[in-house]
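FAQ: What does the model actually see?

It sees only this:
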Amino acid sequence: MTIYDISKKAGVSIATVSRVLNGSSNVKPRTRKKVMDIIEQYGYKPNAFARGLGLNSMKTIGILCADASDLYLAKAIYYIEQNLRENGYNSVLCCTGYEIPSKQKSLNLLLSQHVDAVVMIGSNFIMNNPEDNQYVRDGAATVPIMLLNADFDCSNVYCTLCDDYKATQDATEQMIKSGIKDILYLYNSNSYSGLKKLAGYQNALLTNDISLKKQLQQCFKGSHEDIDGVKNFVEAIYNKGIKFSGIVTSDDFLAVGAMNFARSHHIKVPSELQIIGYNNSILSHCSEPELSSIDNRLEDMCIQLVKTLIGTLSQNEMPQKTIFSGELVKRGSTSF
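And it is asked to produce this:
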């Protein structure tokens, strides 16, 4: 029996069960009685460490990240740790890789250290197969789970994300309105975020009566550090006779690789080829001309995530989902 089970049986949130266990006055008497009746019926003995901020808080937050060498994830770690320190919390980081057993093992390790909450950075922690997300549900039965840039409907799970779908759709539509219809889309992940970006690109074309072409939707399966590999990947597409006057990507490293391809073939950017990146990372300044890139407001998301986390641990009612809007930052790789 866990507080998750109690919340389900009593028909209340985990936060409400936690408030009852901590003796908070911010609970209606009728609700308190309902929860206490369930606790007494099943003989539940609460683990003090599972009571959120109540007694015996460790003032420590666990952070899970698939790959800290990824520029986007590394920056997120920095922002989150910085904000946690400002709020008096320490953090423990686990780099999990992308396999589910490793993610589950790392989560269990953090829980065994009695952390007050767990932050999962990146959409790769939520899988398309619902059964693969059971480890997240199990973790949320013990502590609050904070998801950055992923959406998952589960009690005691709080999501802070960018609307990647609309951001990519809007950027693609801006390119279409500039007169470009043969747009190559490059992506590197089938994660929640990756699929939302792809869907945004597809919808932009469809709403502008442009047919979807499989050869113009290409997934690069190499490392995020292999910019030369991206260049060669785009070159292989080009050599097949596939024509494109614009490229929209799901990550800045893909856009930089596309820029290197254009340079090697003496294709002028942006007059002959326009390119858009994603994340507005430092890489957007590492090409000539500089890259136009979608800013998904990572710093703002991280600040909000920590704000939600602190509020939750303080047993305040906090929104379970906060969505930010991305914005295209225009630089030299586009002319619109």
